[in-house]
Specification:
The chain has one helix at about 295-300, and strands spanning about 10-15, 30-40, 40-50, 55-65, 75, 90-100, 105-115, 120-130, 135-140, 155-165, 165-180, 185-195, 205-210, 220-225, 230-240, 245-250, 255-260, 265, 280-285, 290-295, 305-310. By secondary structure, the chain is mainly β. The protein has one domain (about 10-310): Glycosyl hydrolase domain, family 43 (Tachylectin-2, Chain A). The strands form five sheets. Strands 18-1-21-20-19 form a five-stranded mixed beta sheet. Strand 14 and strand 15 (about 230-240) form a beta hairpin.
Amino acid sequence: MTRCQAKQKWEKLGKIYEPDGRRPDMLSHAAVPVCYRIGGDVYRVFFSTRDAQQRSSTYSATFSLSKPQEVLEVGEQPVVGPGSPGSFDDAGAMATAILKVGTDLLLYYIGWNRGVSVPFRNSIGLAVSRDGGTAFEKLHPGPILDRSQFDPCFTASCHVLEREGGYTMWYLSGLRWERDEIGNFKHFYHIKTAESPDAKVWQRTGQVAIDFKDDSEHAISVPRVIKTGAGYSMWYSYRGDRYRIGYAESVDGLSWSRMDDLIELAPSIEDWDSEMICYPFVFEHGSDLFMLYNGNSYGKTGFGLARLQR
């Protein structure tokens, strides 16, 4: 494919939300934000919080693009929370993708357990809302995408898009754990694809969408895909030392070319996003592209908004 030479200059519009500790299960973090349009320029955002034991719950908030830093409403109850003891999500349920199918709103979420030999294990669960996104119900007691012959350690953050003949999911695939030079575990994961006729039951082939560019990387996560006139665009997080946001293009949505150097969205000198920029959610509104993203400490400092300068 022909490489696009245009730089993507993202204008930061400021931080939108950071948890204020109003509830015991939202003491910190507003991680991995995803959103959908309610009406006009008002959007509902789903994000994951943590309690004192670091368990995760998914909450929602609404905001207007005209005044994004004036949050209109924050949910009083979690949309989805940790499951029962022994379940795949007993340590947390973190929203990762949202998709409308007919009159249903599907919320894909990361369910996780604490590990014994390694720190954690993730998989992907599914919840559904039939009232426009106010209340959600978990569809199954177990995950819809778990570790397999293609994903030996775990699965996690994903994005789902309707395409001709069905749906495609781009998801995080955990490959292995290694100990670093000081004895701590380091996880290795990249992005693979899966296909589905109904957005609920998924088939995998092990095809890699975004792989490591060199030995300095060990984590590629939170893919976000938009259909364009020429094919598909994807934004994602990639990490060596600290997370940054990368970009790739594809003609068919399966084979991708990384173009990370096109992204101009750098950490601030001194602010909530001074150490890292991660976990993008890119969406279209009119002729504009917006990006929700997290900053320092994987969302501990909340999430903000940026707009692509045309």
